[in-house]
């Protein structure tokens, strides 16, 4: 199970809207200056993802929850997204090479196969995303923000 903490934005009728912060992978790395991930993280303006998850327990805004998603579903979705265009690229490119016997035909076939694989992944992903095992679940719930109070005033007995 892959776990991540999120902050509750709202809760209505058993559905919680939560916000997950995107963590940069290069905040503590020693080679930050030459890292490609750091540059890519700077390009993307989105630093939060908002999702809706079912929750039987009433939640309040600002409350922290731990979300989890099965590793198998995450790996399956990554396999679908990355491998279907790649397989389409090689299979259709090879097929066009055999049928038409030219490099230009193989290039056109590879482009068609890659785009076709992308469209296949795009068409299958909504159906697969509707499956219950592909949905994130709330694993644990933190205290509401108004339940915990820290008193930072100096102690009366010691001073």
TrEMBL record:
PANTHER family: PROTEIN RSEC
The keyword Membrane is annotated on this UniProt entry: yes
GN (gene name): rseC
Keyword DNA-binding part of the UniProt annotation: no
InterPro entries attached to this UniProt entry: RseC, SigmaE_reg_RseC_MucC
UniProt superkingdom: Bacteria
Pfam families, A to Z: RseC_MucC (PF04246)
Transmembrane segments: 79-98, 104-121
Record keywords, A-Z: Membrane, Transmembrane, Transmembrane helix
Protein name per UniProt: Sigma factor RpoE regulatory protein
Organism of this sequence: Trabulsiella guamensis ATCC 49490
